[in-house]
Amino acid sequence: MAVLNLIYSARWLIFGAILSIYTVSKYKTYKRLSQFKGPFSTGWSEIWHIRAIMSYRSHECYREATDKYGSITRVGPNDLVTNSPDLLCHMSAVRSPYTRTPWYSRATRAEPGRDHLFSLTDEETHTKRRQKMASGFSGKENLSLEPSIDSRVHELIHLIRSKYISSTDPTTPSKPMDLAMKAQFFTLDVISHIGFGRAFGDLAADADVDGYIAASEEGMKAMTFICATGLTPIFQSPLIARLFGPSETDKSGHGKMMRTSRRLISDRMDEYNSGKEKGSDMLASFIHRGMTKDEICTEAFLQILAGSDTTATAIRSTMLHLMSHPRVYRRLQEEIDWAVREGVVGEGGVISEANAETLPYLQAVVREGLRIHLPISDVVPKIVPKGGDIVVVDGIPTFLPEGTNVGYDVLGLARRKDLFGDDPDVFRPERWLLEEGSEKLETMRRMTEMIFGYGKYQCLGKPIAWMEINKVIFELLRHFDWAIMRPAKPWKTANYIGIFLQQELWVLVHERGS
């Protein structure tokens, strides 16, 4: 009782001491990065950053901030974002001492305690995992890669032609098609086919067979909330994950996909161990390279997410911008028609990746489509190494204190006027039609390809995504004419910590004449 009385009598002194300690701590935090300007409250509070992520438009928030405050902008007490190409390349270089931050990367785990390539923060483990996986993403050990994609393109064309062709007959109703959903069916079937040797079958069924797409939005919303609020350690704990996370006993969604993936992987590993495995797809390459069953299962889930949502976004956004720009649409279709007449692609086949790369305007459209609306805009912050680092940003030497998180303002990079001209917000593929080999063109290409990461963090699926986009854009404009059904509100789109989910891109499709 005497102790309680003492505490009570000294309550204001205790309160003052606590307040003083808190104030000094906040001041030190603010002072540490005070040389970097940013939105109000970012020097001492996470509120601005949380709101940016929870707005589902964080890429726009980061761009607005760097436009106003400079190429390095403060977005939190210990967080910066940058659109400086030099700094971004420096942080991700192969021998860079910068490492990933747990607050962001670990929030992307599908299962507690199990890291995939994107969530790994240990550099040595990350490097070894990449080395095991690299061949599976190339055509060297995945001989069925391009034929698999071609098969899915044929399925997509058949689906559109059999169910969604509108007529010019005044008595015949139109047949609206949700291109957002069809693009997702296509990319899911591609990644499952090249990854497991068997497509999920969404295109054939014209439906979200396993409920993955329906489950994705709920899962991504939860992941965004967990990441924004810093609650990853709590929700990644085994008890909480069992209560709220996906389970392999689920009848649909991510849980069912995890169960299906594990079964397919187990069957293939059994075949390999018995000497019957003769596949040449991605999964076979992973097994041959010595990856464990748990490693493959964890990576498979990442492939399905990163390999379908991001590529589907690239297809949707490029098609939307084409339909919104008749001049560009006509010019690309003229090049496609020329390629067909000249035998660059056979009458009944899908254009090869090698031939698609020879078509300059197609390549310009694809690159401009990736630049104008990013397929992925993850901030993927890196930690400044021990001792801090002096970097040159916009010609000015700048000291970054040890332990600071430095994130990627990808939209800001894609809109830099010194890289892309005075009209960076305009969809203009002609900006890419510079003389081959020119320094300006090479710089633009290098900066745009940073969308797929750089150096030791470059996306292994980049060649697959590029191949899918090239083939689909070519074949969709080769066979059909396209129009936006609701130009005032063409689609619904939201950014979930870097992954875009889009719905209801309603279009009208007409068969083209020969």
TrEMBL record:
Q: Which cofactor does it need?
A: heme
Keyword Metal-binding annotated: yes
The entry's heme-binding residues are: C459
Q: Determine if Glycoprotein is one of this entry's keywords.
A: no
The domain of life for this entry's organism is Eukaryota
GO terms (molecular function) for this protein are:
heme binding; iron ion binding; monooxygenase activity; oxidoreductase activity, acting on paired donors, with incorporation or reduction of molecular oxygen
The protein here is known as Cytochrome P450 monooxygenase ABA1
Organism (species): Massarina eburnea CBS 473.64
